[in-house]
Amino acid sequence: MTTASLAVLCLCVSTPALAHVPDPGDPGDPGDPIRLEEVIVTATRLPRPVTETPGARVFTEADIEARGAIFAADLLAEVPGAALARTGPFGGLTQLRLRGASPGKTLVLIDGVPVNDPAEINGAYDFSSLSLADIAQMEVLSGPQSSLWGSDAIGGVVALTTRETSGFRADLEAGSLNTRRGALSVGRAGERGALGLSVAGFRTDGVSAAAAGTEDDGFETLTAGLKGRIIPRAGVELDGGLRWTRSRVAIDGYPAPAFVLGDTDDVSKSESWSGHGRLSVQTGGVHHRLTLAASDIERETRSAYSNRFDADRQVWRWDMDGTGGEGRLSWAAGLERRTESANLDSGLSDDLGTSSVYGTVLVPLTSRVTVGAALRHDDTDDFGTATTGRLTAHVDLGAGFGLSGAVGTGFKAPTVSQSVCDFCFSADPFPTLRPEHAEGAELALGWQSPGGGLTGRVTVYRLTIEDQIIYRFDPLTFDSVYINLDRTRTDGVELESQLVLGAGFDLSLGYAWTDARDESDGSPLLRVPKHSGTVGLGYSGKRLSGRLTVRAEGDMPDSGGTREGFVTADLHLGYTLTDQVELTARVDNLSDERWQSLLGYGEPGRTVALGVRLRY
Q: pTM higher than 0.90 for the full model?
């Protein structure tokens, strides 16, 4: 990607006030004042407007449908400061780095259930098969969130909430590369209870995962979910859910004799499930919740170097929330016990556990100033204790301006692979690992126009991680062990804006400058582009709707060299036939750009898909 292209993108994002916000009386306008709907973030444990929450982004069900997003990675690619690395376009390992933090430092929650993979080296989550077919909302909290969610949340949190279906929904789509997609959900919901079932499938012949390859690498995945709740009496609620996913993907490897990335017959399979049951009781002004949750994953790769992993996690959590000071403040607190185990391909295994207590409070000091605090103490079974905290503040400056800030700390205990030193080789004793610790600070200035048709926010931040754990190979002694790296630091700027243009059009802009470095030698951290951004143009008419999304990344340091920057565009269209039937069309990589997410891995050219949505 050229420097000129990035400069134009930066200029567009940093000058949203130059755009025209139409008057209610403009032609094509409905005549009512234009306001962007207030979006609430709930993963903060005390729900707050996203505009008053530093580092928060929320994608609603309407956002998912407007973009035609299929997998969570489709939305994460639009989050400023989020770097996605995937080893192939369909089903390839897809890992997230928030604000430069390495994979495994972003906690992923589905209905409050942690689903990170305990058997993965860093404990990272693979987003390649995370379907959005049954998702009502996805929240992204960037920055250290350990004071709320404990280990794994140094870089941030991605929290998804599944939909409570009332009626019948179906989505069918087919297109290029022999790609087929289907989703079905049915359920009934009322004041006293709800029960719903959803199924979603996706398959494609794909393209070669290796950019230099010639054979297609196909992918297929199936997800099923069950969700329900019942209110047996006033003030008492029981709810639960179960989600299962199975995937199979053809992958490429490093065949002999050249041992460079190319075509192979390798196949990777995975099967996972997560679920929870919850009892909620309202006593006076306090809301109590007792949650039991579990998740399990099995992974297998069939190749010249076949391997198999399996892991599980159980979480017991009791939390409560309420108000105090005659309703002037809100608070939440809880206890948690988390245990996880993993069986690794080497034959090694381990069980890890953490007991935690946490609390958070939100206090409006004046009508314009609100402050918040969170504190958590984690006691690990194997790696000692850690106390983390976070302070937040929001100030209404008037004239539509708001200033938000946060400072916080985070920690991450070693994973199972790291704790047993999986695939370590050394004549000396293996190093004793220490938990990773982080400090983060951010300041965000936001603005909203009087009519609510234009919002913008600029965020500056610093994230420092001490004792980051890495796997190091010494080419002289051939020692291969996990060690604690001294220190990494990320400095960044994130800009974002939303604008209602009128006549059914809206514009969204996002840009991130991310400078992530290893402070021991000043070298840049791999797979974190310094420049990235998106521009989205949406339209919503009486029958026709659509969204054009343009995404760009600058050059990025990667294993073996530099991955060149790129600009790519996707288009999604919908045409409403009736209140229940909508025709859809999607064109990905609109300009047929040749680009790579990671160095050496291929991406498809222009693809087209046609579909239908049914809502009854």
A: yes
Do 75 and 138 contact (CB within 8 A), yes or no?
Answer: yes
Strand partners, 340: 313, 352
Residue spans of the chain under pLDDT 70 = 1-38
The DSSP output letter for 90 is S
How many other CB atoms sit within 10 Å of the CB of residue 528? 24
pLDDT of 40 reads 86
Cβ-in-10-Å burial (0-12, 13-18, 19+) of 413 comes to: buried
**CB 122, CB 104: distance < 8 Å:** yes
- What pLDDT sits at residue 256? 85
Tell me the backbone φ, ψ of residue 377, rounded to 5 degrees: -120, 120
**Res 27: pLDDT:** 39
Tell how strand 106-110 and strand 156-162 pair up. Answer: parallel
Torsion of CA 588, 590, 596, 602, to 10 degrees: 60
Distance between CA atoms of residues 476 and 424, nearest Å: 15
d(CA 570, CA 536): 10
pLDDT score at 37: 59
**CA–CA distance, 548 with 50 (Å, rounded to integer):** 24
Backbone conformation region of residue 390, classed left if phi is above 0, alpha if psi is from -120 to 50, else beta: beta
> Is the backbone of residue 258 left (phi > 0), alpha (psi -120 to 50) or beta?
alpha
Task: Evaluate whether 430 touches 424 at the Cβ level (below 8 Å).
Answer: yes
**What Cα–Cα distance (Å) separates residue 28 from each residue in 54, 227, 575?**
35, 42, 19
**How many residues does this entry show for the chain?**
616
Angle at 176 between CA 173 and CA 180, to 5 degrees: 35
CA 355, CA 336: separation in Å to the nearest integer? 6
- Do 485 and 470 touch, CB atoms closer than 8 A? yes
Q: Which helix (H) or strand (E) holds 483?
A: strand 480-502
Tokens representing 105? 């430092």
Q: Is the peptide bond before 257 cis (omega within 30 degrees of 0)?
A: yes
Residues 6+ apart with CB under 8 A from 496: 13, 57, 80, 456, 457, 508, 509, 510, 511
CA distance 418 to 109: 23
Check if the beta carbon of residue 470 is closer than 8 Å to that of residue 414: no
